[in-house]
């Protein structure tokens, strides 16, 4: 959600109008005879929305966008960073409180295969459903503070590429197709695709200066 102050979600009923409802009433007299009568009533119609109870969602926030194009496949992620406190300058970890999202887009119709023409930032705002009165939202002003653009060409398999210093933690996330070095996104990392596991036996080979490295593999099972 990207909120720095996130309360418990609230379900709210909002009146959307009225409608006429036909009601059948039955009654029984003291002799046991049942009579029915049909009456029409005007009743209110409601819709239920979820109020996120969020404040200052992205005020003075620092976001990092990582976009990778591999053929017709676009992989992207947005990560919010701390701007104060002891974690200042570090990526946020809790997706329930901060803006941490990722996804993949496949350009099946080849609409976005032209050369890169320009880079810009835009932030859209819109009213939320529970705004039954006019609410004055502040304009979101964006600034691009840093920009890196890479083009990865074919490289020799034996050509070394230094991506981290001694003691830094390297995380290769094959689910989000992203790599972090010391907790921060790093790109580009290698010239091949992130490995995907297939049913059966899989072999993963790590090549490099790994004599004193500590390697941890985490496997998240998925239903086939």
From TrEMBL:
Q: Which residues form the Siphovirus-type tail component C-terminal domain?
A: 160-222
- What this protein is called in its record is Phage tail protein
